[in-house]
Amino acid sequence: MRSADALLEVRGLTRRFGGLLAVADLDFTVRPGEILGLIGPNGAGKSTTFNLIAGALRPDAGEIRAGGEPVAGLPPHEIARRGILRTFQHNRVFAGMSVVENVMVGAHTRFRAGLWSIVGARAGARAEEAAVRARAEELIGFVGLAEWREADVTTLSFGQGRLLEIARAMAGDPRLILLDEPAAGLAPAELDRLAALLRGIAARGIAVLLIEHDMRFLLPLAGRVVVLNFGVKIAEGSADEIRHHPAVIDAYLGDPAALVDAARAGESTHAAA
Ligand SMILES: Nc1ncnc2c1ncn2[C@@H]1O[C@H](COP(=O)(O)OP(=O)(O)OP(=O)(O)O)[C@@H](O)[C@H]1O
Ligand SMILES: [Mg+2]
User: Relative to the CA of 49, which ligand 1 atom is closest?
Assistant: First the structure.
């Protein structure tokens, strides 16, 4: 794929923390509308990779291109303006605001003015605010929180908070959404809802780059998977290729539960096929 066609292209991406090489010479590409899994043991460099792409960290070396345009080192709101939105490994809500207001904030993360343009909306901005609110309400319905749209955000359950985070990222009108362990801590029924939601996002033509430890959740969902270990890409391929890849099995040897998860994910994929 030529770089101009790739939604996101990462080449030679490298980041150190003191003497620790957290991300080492990493290459990968995200294509429009795909769900790409990013996996690896604890400390493999997954969240650091997200922080580099989203502009929260500056790379020590390497290129990041969005739609062919270099974006490495740009601040987060400039990355967001180019259609790359993210959620965090831990939910971040704006307490004291309703669910719909929390999603409206997401529409403003693309602009430097951010939150304050909602709080202090002037008369001239009212029409725009109405459009932003309508869009936020549509997204709240899309993630399944319609009943709670006027609720104070602190009354949501943990799983509902996850859905809110995704709605907020969607409000920034992404071409690519970065999700850091969205399935962590969710109950089985919530996992099913989240999987359906991620498929729905991809079906809207929005690419999803998904960090996930739960292989049973990830492998049936991801069209392709990139595997990191100690900052280095050790494998890339389809879910089936990854499941049977010797280097991936080696990397997870210290974590037998993850291997069992991967095997079960294989069973459930075959059962579904
Ligand atoms: N701000 C930081 N300062 C120093 N070291 C850091 C920092 N952020 C991450 N690291 C280190 O970089 C390495 C990669 O961390 P990262 O959070 O990217 O891993 P991860 O793959 O997301 O792990 P997990 O699955 O546990 O979330 C780890 O050794 C971590 O301790
Ligand atoms: Mg992480």
Answer: 18
> Is any atom of ligand 1 closer than 6 Å to the C-beta of 19?
no
Instruction: Give the C-alpha separation, 88 to 161, whole Å.
Output: 12
Strands 69-70 and 61-66: antiparallel
Write down the mean pLDDT value for the chain.
86
- Ligand 1 atom nearest to 45, measured from its CA: 18
| 3-state SS, residue 18 | coil
Q: Which residues contact 239 (CB under 8 A, 6 or more apart)?
A: 37, 218, 219, 220, 222, 225, 265, 269
Domains in the chain, start-ordered, CATH in brackets? 1-83+174-273 (3.40.50.300), 93-173 (no CATH)
The closest residue, in CA terms, to atom 17 on ligand 1 is: 47
**Residue 254 scores a pLDDT above 80:** no
Is the pTM here over 0.90, yes or no? no
Contacts of 227 (CB under 8 A, 6+ apart): 39, 40, 233, 234, 235, 236, 242, 245, 247, 248, 251
* DSSP secondary structure letters along 58-82: --SEEEEEETTEE-TT--HHHHHHT
Cβ of 95 closer than 6 Å to ligand 1, yes or no, is no
Q: Which two tokens stand for residue 247?
A: 């280097």
Q: What average pLDDT score do residues 145-171 get?
A: 93
